[in-house]
Specification:
With 471 residues, the protein is an alpha+beta fold. The chain contains 7 helices and 31 strands. It has helices at residues 2-13, 137-143, 207-221, 228-241, 246-255, 437-456, 463-470; strands spanning 16-23, 28-35, 48-50, 58-59, 72-74, 94-98, 106-107, 120-123, 133-134, 146-149, 151-153, 158-167, 172-176, 181-186, 194-195, 200-205, 262-265, 270-275, 282-283, 288-293, 297-305, 317-322, 329-341, 347-355, 366-372, 379-383, 388-389, 394-401, 404-416, 419-424, 431-435. The radius of gyration is 47 Å and the shape is rod-shaped. Residues 380-440 form the CzcB-like C-terminal circularly permuted SH3-like domain.
Length: 471
């Protein structure tokens, strides 16, 4: 204890104060020396306050540490607080000093921020008046800046549109009677059955058909001379008007026998979509007994957004993917662009003709269409990542070399495949920044703001007054 009193007396005599504290993790007492601030003149204002134990902690105003000790004030004339002068190796003129953390704060003289960091000197020529931004090689490397020359290439704009499969209206046939008839017999054909052209479907008895057939046979077998040929042509036309199949008429002319019932057959290859015929029923004129559709060629009716209408045209190739067959696509071409815009969905109906030899595409099946609008003409194009789009204007950063980058406004065209057409503002071969351009843009905005602060700062003759105000 005597030794401890002696040490304390010596410390007080030399301007030091000793404090003891407990290390809970080691379980022993330890002595730590603290610097006691000298008496501060009343006319001075501290720049900031630092931790009394020497730890790298600072505060902009008075503060106590976790042990209740006051932070120590640091004054403008404190040697420990003075920033180091700039290196003499550079002969350039210092314009001003900017905040090291990027805050919009400048100073005409060297100073420290509240954390004790020196303000960064800005030299004459760092912010050129030609509108370029200059970065050091180290900052360019750390930021990952990449540039690519402007080149001519084909811009592929892919228009996507959903739709459904529909039957080709030109490939649908309906079987209906043109006179009162009775269905005598029906073949083993049901809805959904596939039929071939000429395949028997049913047997029909019609008194009107039988009468016309007997009249035609009487004409062609008559020995009467004069006008027989003309009269025979009229009787045959009557059978045609009653929709009697041509093969039935040819059989009558060959056998000279009028059939009691007529065998009706399928007019085309296809699928039976509708069967309304029932054995023994009476069919009135116009009643649809069968409806058959050829599905070897179908339509994809898709809805293209109004904004993409200018990119599509009749004859363009289209890849259609059915949701029922993932990983498989069907190739077709645009046949018709309907001349009407849906006012509710703001879309335009487009018809795509698709070959369907395997009959995999069925009516009302959902599909997704990708319209390839690639133009064979080569245009100036850049990567879409190179564009800085503010909504009202588009700009790029042109790499001028030696770490200089020039912001330049451009006019853009079509977009697709990761590239954008450039219609004005760039020339072929110029290098544009494609990576980390947002960081360069932020640096440009920061330098512009700092330059504005520097221009608004008071002249050097008022530097002392300005420094006093900052305090």
């Amino acid at each position: 204890m005597k030794t401890l009193r002696l040490l304390t007396t010596l410390a007080l005599g030399s301007g030091l104060a000793l404090g003891a504290y407990w290390f809970s993790n080691e379980g022993r007492w330890s002595v730590h020396a603290e610097v006691t601030p000298a008496a501060a003149p009343a006319d001075r204002t501290p720049l900031y306050y630092r931790d009394p134990s020497g730890a790298p902690l600072w505060s902009a105003g008075p503060k106590k540490d976790d042990r209740g000790r006051d932070y120590l004030p640091v004054y403008d004339d404190d040697k420990a607080a003075e920033p180091k002068p700039p290196q003499a190796a550079s002969s350039r003129k210092i314009l001003y000093y900017r905040n090291p953390m990027g805050l919009p704060d400048t100073s005409p003289v060297p100073k420290k921020d509240p954390m004790g960091m020196n303000y960064i000197a800005v030299y004459e020529g760092d912010d050129a008046d030609d509108g370029t931004v200059k970065l050091s090689p180290g900052k360019i490397q750390r930021s990952g800046v990449k540039s690519e020359p402007v080149a001519r290439r084909s811009v592929q704009v892919l228009v996507k549109a959903p739709g459904t499969i529909q039957l080709d209206e030109r490939r649908v046939s309906v079987i209906a009677m043109r006179a009162e008839s009775f269905v005598q017999k029906i073949a083993d054909v049901t809805t959904g059955s596939r039929v071939k052209a000429g395949q028997p479907l049913m047997e029909i008895y019609s008194s009107a058909v039988a009468s016309a057939a007997a009249d035609y046979l009487a004409t062609i077998t008559s020995k009467t001379v004069g006008g027989v040929e003309i009269y025979g042509r009229g009787s045959r036309q009557r059978l045609i008007n009653l929709d009697v199949p041509e093969r039935v008429i040819a059989e009558m002319e060959k056998t000279h026998v009028a059939p009691v019932t007529i065998h009706w057959s399928a007019p085309r290859d296809g699928i039976v979509l509708e069967r309304n015929a029932i054995e023994g029923m009476r069919a009135n004129p116009g009643d649809v007994l069968f409806r058959i559709a050829d599905t070897s060629l179908v339509w994809a009716l898709v809805d293209v957004a109004e904004r993409d209408l200018g990119n599509i045209a009749v004859g363009q190739s289209v890849a259609v993917r059915a949701r029922s067959f993932p990983g498989r696509s069907f190739t077709g071409k645009i046949a018709v662009i309907y001349p009407q815009v849906n006012r509710e969905t703001r879309t335009v109906r487009v018809r795509i003709e698709l070959a369907n030899p395997e009959a995999l595409l069925l009516p009302d099946m959902y599909v997704d269409a990708d319209v390839d609008t690639a133009d064979s003409a080569l245009v100036l194009a850049i990567q879409d990542s190179a564009v800085l789009d503010t909504g009202t204007r588009q700009a790029v950063l042109v790499d001028k070399g030696d770490g200089r980058f020039e912001p330049r406004e451009v006019k853009l065209g079509r977009r697709g495949g990761g590239f954008i057409e450039v219609r004005d503002g760039l020339a072929e071969g110029e290098a544009v920044v494609t990576s980390a351009n947002f960081l360069i843009d932020a640096e440009s905005n920061l330098k512009a703001a700092l330059k504005g602060f520097a221009e608004a700062a008071p002249p050097a003759s008022d530097a002392g007054h300005a420094t006093g105000e900052h305090k």
